[in-house]
Specification:
305 residues, alpha/beta, Arginase, Chain A, 9-stranded parallel sheet, 3-stranded antiparallel sheet, 8 helices, 12 strands, 29% helix, 18% strand, globular
Length: 305
């Protein structure tokens, strides 16, 4: 029996990220998380990544459906303030290449800058990690920070050549060979596992009070968890390690987020969308912490009469 690998037709219409509202830049307000897709433009396998992330996010979006009496984040087992989340998530759709150049670099820079100028948080879906230079360029356009930009790059093969003189970066990678630049803190994943909490504190101290771009590439998550990236290795982060890191990062000054490296066309381990769910579970931990929308349920002791 052959397996069905093509996407099934949907009758529910377009699915925005996390079942949020479709919006234009004019509708973006302060504190919002603004998702948009970025195809590579080269008909590569990652071109379907934005669609895959949106379809998978529909499951998570049902956690804060306005009709639910008590919305929950079932992974953290905490109550979600559903109205606050639903009003903070919007989707701009997918970017189109610049008509003059046929590339995405200019469009991506302008989109990032315009979202940041509205004091909102851009969330880039899909694409390839090479877009990081355009993302950081857009952040620099939105506000010329005197002390530079901070970037947390979580990837098996991180591109750190995009930094400028006043920028800092923390590279969490299974490949620890990073130039000895004092502005770059290199942390191998195997070192991260030894004393995780102290490393998280070191990461936050290194990034300081600067606006931080968090770049999560699918290659950083251990391949035995999902197999959704051709670059992933068995030495990558586990889901629990990535989630603990992201929960604490939620209190940092997050400027923008990107999820890259996903190849939704891979068969086998990623057939049931495990990879997409792992990535979204981690990134939502950060977003919920950043928005402050989780409430711990108070347990009432049971008294026997």
């Amino acid at each position: 029996m052959t397996l069905r690998i093509e996407p099934l037709p949907r009758m529910a219409g377009h699915l925005p990220f996390m079942r949020g509202r479709l919006a234009r830049l004019d509708n973006v307000g302060p504190g919002m998380v603004v998702a948009f897709g970025l195809p590579s433009g080269f008909n590569s396998r990652s071109d379907l990544a934005p669609l895959a992330m949106r379809e998978t996010s529909a499951y998570f979006g049902s956690h804060f459906n306005a009709n639910m009496k008590s919305a929950m984040d079932i992974d953290q087992r905490q109550v979600l303030r559903s109205a606050d989340v639903a009003g903070s998530m919007v989707d701009l759709g997918d970017l189109r290449p610049d008509p003059a150049t046929g590339t995405f670099e200019g469009t991506l820079r302008r989109t990032i800058a315009q979202i940041r100028e509205k004091d909102a948080i851009p969330l880039l879906l899909g694409g390839e990690q090479g877009c990081l230079s355009s993302v950081l360029a857009g952040l620099r356009m939105s506000e010329p920070w005197s002390n530079g930009i901070a970037a947390l790059i979580i990837s098996a093969a991180s591109d750190i050549d995009v930094l400028q003189a006043n920028d800092v970066a923390c590279v969490v990678s299974a490949s620890p060979e990073v130039p000895g630049d004092p502005a770059i803190m290199s942390l191998a994943i195997r070192d991260l596992r030894q004393r995780f909490e102290s490393h998280v504190e070191s990461i936050l101290r290194h990034l300081g009070q600067r606006p931080v771009h968090v770049a999560l590439d699918a290659s950083a998550i251990a391949s035995h968890w999902h197999g959704a990236s051709t670059s992933a290795g068995f030495a990558g982060l586990s889901l629990s390690e990535c989630r603990r890191l992201f929960r604490q990062l939620g209190v940092a000054n997050i400027a923008s987020l990107s999820i890259t490296g996903l190849d939704p066309t891979i068969n086998g381990l990623s057939l049931v969308k495990t990879g997409q769910r792992l990535l979204l579970t981690a990134i939502l931990d950060l977003i919920y912490a950043r928005l402050g929308v989780l409430e711990r349920r108070v347990e009432t002791p049971h008294v026997c009469v």
